[in-house]
Write a structure and sequence with these properties.
The complex is a heterodimer of chains A (252) and B (259). By secondary structure, chain A is α/β, with parallel strands linked by helices. Helices cover 29% and strands 12% of the residues of chain A. Chain A has eight helices and seven strands; from the N terminus they run H-E-H-E-H-E-H-E-H-H-E-E-E-H-H. In chain A, the strands form two sheets. In chain A, strands 1-5-4-2-3 form a five-stranded parallel sheet, with helices on both faces. Chain A has a two-stranded antiparallel ribbon with strand order 6-7. Chain A is elongated. With 259 residues, chain B is an alpha/beta fold. Chain B has a single domain, classed as Rossmann fold, CATH 3.40.50.300. In chain B, strands 3-2-4-5-1-6-7-8-9 form a nine-stranded mixed sheet, sandwiched between helices. The radius of gyration of chain B is 18 Å and the shape is globular. Chains A and B meet through helix 3 of A and helix 5 and helix 7 of B. Chain B: It holds the Pfam family ELP6. Chain B: Pathway: tRNA modification; 5-methoxycarbonylmethyl-2-thiouridine-tRNA biosynthesis. Chain B: Belongs to the ELP6 family. Chain B: One of its GO terms (cellular component) is elongator holoenzyme complex. Chain B: InterPro entries: ELP6, P-loop_NTPase.
Chain lengths: 252, 259
């Protein structure tokens, strides 16, 4: 999917990016659209300041980039921005995006949808986005939590200093650690660890005294043995021994 | 101002980074010593400070600051400090926080002080970048302001103070998981939202094993640096002990009481 976007042979649609506030994600999308395709890019900023974005885009021609800054004043408290969360409606957006006369594929990047969802009802946002999709080419949203994923892919990519994007292999090349040559610990021993067949046979035949065998069991369990055990106890002179209550000291 | 904390955060009164949005979260403990630290730090750094004291009175902050070697009354007279005494103001939660933001905006971007105080050379004293300190945001939640509104407020503070005026914002938020009331869920939500916005978080919590005389809690420092070539998060964990006139920070298990 990422390669398709980079090469520009996709059919357009929604792209939802889930993640943390990360200026490079924006740059990535915008550079994709700018460098690899010849289209207008509209960015609505809620979470990142215009300056922060422009700092990262130094080397990119920005004629095709239209920034709608809602970062400074997203709710119209100070009357200093043109775009506020309340402006997120189909009418306003189509008007805003159709500034250039020739109809051309346009990408709309929204950073972030979470901001809009806090102030506009979800159904409104959904219907607006669906209607927008008919008119636009790509709509990109920024961080928002997605519960269900219909189509999910993981990509590794690298952005170089000159903002070229390299898609790395899908199977991330796990750094192949050269397998350490296992030393055989039994190599240089002064004694023999191995058994010959004869020795093994002798070993298996051997009956150890604690092992139960028929003889053994009978001897131990059936005959109580000649000497029965007795405990001989001679009380010490200082012992406090009570004949009537011999268990007095047990503290029960 | 705690020298040890300065070296951990790598900021010093004569050389500190701007456009920082710092969140202090406290759990099962009292992290107000950090608010006092930042208050005295920025006053010494000759910043213009706007303080929203919603938890304590001015005289309380003044008494603590004097121990740390900063005189708030003087700073107020000089116009360096603008103090909103939240205990004496009545904030109407139904109106939203727009008024509060307007107060912050005017006190951060306005001329240095309502008195127009002049120093010996005659001209008005020049102060550095503005700094907003809030102690603590949770009070707004308990006043009945919704989480979304508080997040809007903090966003506006960030956009204005950090981005436009190149200053810093420090906000404290108290969240306790032990409380069962609905308030608490709000604090957790708010913390998540704020963590998303901020550039540095200091998570302060009491020891999970309970009170200890030699270790008062632990502090997790999370940086979210946005550098030109990379963005990385860096976490460090310290334990701390608050002293009479400062605090000491040390790696886990290396309290001087044990070693």
């Amino acid at each position: 999917m990422l390669l398709e976007i980079l090469q520009g042979n996709d059919s357009g649609g929604f792209l939802l990016i889930k993640g943390i506030r990360h200026v490079w994600v924006h740059l990535f999308i915008i550079t994709c659209a700018l460098l690899f395709r010849d289209e207008d890019v509209h960015v609505i900023l809620f979470e990142v300041s215009e300056q922060e974005l422009k700092d990262g885009l130094k080397e990119i021609p920005s004629q095709k980039l239209h920034i709608h800054n809602a970062y400074e004043d997203p709710l119209g408290w100070t009357n200093s921005t043109s775009f506020t969360a309340q402006h997120f409606s189909l009418n306003y957006l189509t008007q805003m995006l159709k500034l250039n006369p020739q109809p051309k594929a346009t990408t709309l990047v929204i950073d972030s949808l979470s901001w809009i969802l806090r102030h506009v009802s979800t159904t409104n946002v959904c219907s607006t986005l669906h209607q927008l999709k008919k008119e636009l080419f790509w709509v990109c949203f920024m961080p928002i939590c997605i519960r269900e994923c219909i189509f999910q892919q993981e990509h590794s990519f690298r952005i170089d200093e000159d903002l070229t994007i390299t898609v790395l292999n899908k199977t991330p090349n796990i750094e192949s650690v050269p397998e350490e040559h296992q030393m055989d610990p039994t190599a240089n021993l002064t004694f023999n660890l191995r058994l010959s067949d004869k020795e093994r046979e002798a070993k298996e035949k051997l009956l150890l005294p604690f092992m139960f065998s028929k003889d053994n069991t009978e001897k131990l369990l059936l005959h109580s043995g000649s000497g029965s055990g007795r405990i001989l106890y001679e009380p010490d002179a200082s012992d406090d021994y009570d004949q009537e209550d011999p268990d007095d000291d047990l503290d029960v | 101002m705690f020298a040890e904390l300065n070296s951990i955060l790598n900021t010093f009164p004569d050389k500190f980074s701007q456009e920082e949005f710092i969140i202090i979260s406290e759990r099962r403990c009292d992290a107000s010593f950090l608010i006092h630290h930042f208050l005295s730090f920025y006053l010494r750094a000759r910043c213009k400070v706007c303080f929203l004291g919603l938890v304590q009175s001015f005289s309380h902050y003044n008494a603590v600051s004097q121990r740390l070697g900063v005189n708030l009354v003087q700073a107020k007279e000089k116009g360096q400090l603008v103090f909103l005494e939240g205990l004496q103001e009545s904030l109407d939660p139904t109106k939203g926080l727009q008024d509060l933001f307007q107060f912050v905006r005017s006190s951060c971007s306005g001329p240095s002080g309502p008195l127009g105080c002049t120093d010996r050379s005659g001209g008005p004293e020049e102060w550095g970048p503005p700094v907003l300190l809030v102690d603590d945001l949770g009070v707004l939640l308990s006043l009945g302001v919704s989480v979304g509104t508080v997040l809007d407020f903090s966003h506006y503070c960030r956009a204005t103070v950090c981005s436009r005026l190149q200053g810093n914002v420090v906000m404290l938020l108290h969240c306790d998981e032990e409380e069962d009331d609905g308030d608490d869920e709000g604090a957790e939500q708010l913390l998540k939202g704020l963590t998303h916005q901020c550039s540095l978080t200091l998570h302060v919590q009491g020891l999970p094993t309970g009170y200890c005389r030699d270790i008062h809690g632990q502090m997790e420092v999370c940086w979210r640096r946005q550098q030109a070539d990379e963005q990385h998060t860096l976490n460090k964990l310290f334990q701390y002990k608050v002293h009479d006139k400062g605090a000491s920070f040390f790696a886990r298990g290396t309290s001087s009481a044990f070693l």
